[in-house]
Amino acid sequence: PAELPASIIKRLPVRFNYDNRYFKDTWEGLPADGYTKWFERMIDDPRVTVSLGVDFFDESQPYNKKALRAAGVPVVYTGPIDRYFDYELGDLKWRTVDFKEVRYDEGDHFGCPVMNFSDADVPYTRAIEFKNFNPERRERQNPDKTVVWEEYSRFAERGDEPYYPINTDADKALYARYEAKAAAEPKTVFGGRLGTYKYYDMHQVIDTALTAYEEQVAPLLANITK
Ligand SMILES: Cc1cc2nc3c(=O)[nH]c(=O)nc-3n(C[C@H](O)[C@H](O)[C@H](O)COP(=O)(O)OP(=O)(O)OC[C@H]3O[C@@H](n4cnc5c(N)ncnc54)[C@H](O)[C@@H]3O)c2cc1C
């Protein structure tokens, strides 16, 4: 690496140091108390009801696709867009990840929070060592133990958690056809990574959610209150 010009090293997707940051962006951050706390505070409002473990397509549930369509109420749908249309044009392709937790009796295994692997003899593509995201919390961490999650990448089947859109030209063409069908559902806003068949990082998905609220959800709500 020392022989490469700095301008090239800066653009390489690999790192030659132990910088603990995830990306190479100028500004990076995590919610101080984590995303879980953040969401708990957002939904802590008497106007918000949360139902977990409920499938939107399960017609025995009160807020299912069929019932809400019939009632003509606005819906923000954040599930897979092909699932919404019962895969009638075919399945969009995704990759998924199987996670394997490994615990080491060591203070620090990798020396950084994220280690990527492209070696032919390593079956996982990435390993995350959580404690290294927060070196400023060393005092509160166990000095003799560390937890690592290895990520095993594979093609997603129906029923797997879809993670990364494969996005070949054929997928893009298929998504465009689903998008046209979605446009014909005026009361349903297709949101998030699954509803729009895109990979987003958190700052991007937050931005698209706020924009979708302003441009698509607020006008639907305004129509109701009129
Ligand atoms: C493996 C992985 C690692 C990532 N790492 C990072 C990272 O390090 N940094 C970063 O910034 N971003 C990261 N991201 C991206 C970030 O997690 C996503 O952008 C963000 O979570 C997307 O939010 P979302 O609301 O669009 O989708 P999701 O968080 O997936 O939410 C969709 C919701 O819809 C629900 N849903 C789907 N179908 C149904 C149904 N039929 N009925 C009821 N509910 C349903 C799901 O249960 C889920 O709760 C990562 C993503 C993945 C997949």
Describe what is shown at a glance.
The protein is of the alpha+beta class and 226 residues long. The chain is built from seven helices and seven strands.
Task: Give a written overview of the molecule.
- The relative contact order is 0.14.
- This protein has helices spanning 6-11, 34-42, 65-71, 81-84, 169-183, 192-195, 202-225, and strands at residues 75-77, 94-104, 114-116, 126-129, 146-155, 164-165, 188-190.
- It is built from 7 helices and 7 strands.
- The strands form 2 sheets. The chain has a 5-stranded antiparallel sheet with strand order 3-4-5-2-6, with no helix packed on it. A two-stranded parallel ribbon has the order 1-7.
- The protein folds into 2 domains: 51-93 and 162-225, NAD(P)-binding Rossmann-like Domain (Rossmann fold), CATH 3.40.50; 95-155.
- The radius of gyration is 21 Å and the shape is globular.
- The protein is 31% helix and 16% strand.
- With 226 residues, the protein is of the alpha+beta class.
- Flavin-adenine dinucleotide binds next to helix 6 and helix 7.
Keywords for this entry:
2 domains; five-stranded antiparallel β-sheet; binds flavin-adenine dinucleotide; Rossmann fold; 16% strand; globular; 226 residues; alpha+beta; 7 helices
Topology:
Elements: H1 6-11, H2 34-42, H3 65-71, E1 75-77, H4 81-84, E2 94-104, E3 114-116, E4 126-129, E5 146-155, E6 164-165, H5 169-183, E7 188-190, H6 192-195, H7 202-225
Parallel strand pairs: 1-7
Antiparallel strand pairs: 2-5, 2-6, 3-4, 4-5
The protein binds flavin-adenine dinucleotide.
Flavin-adenine dinucleotide binds next to helix 6 and helix 7.
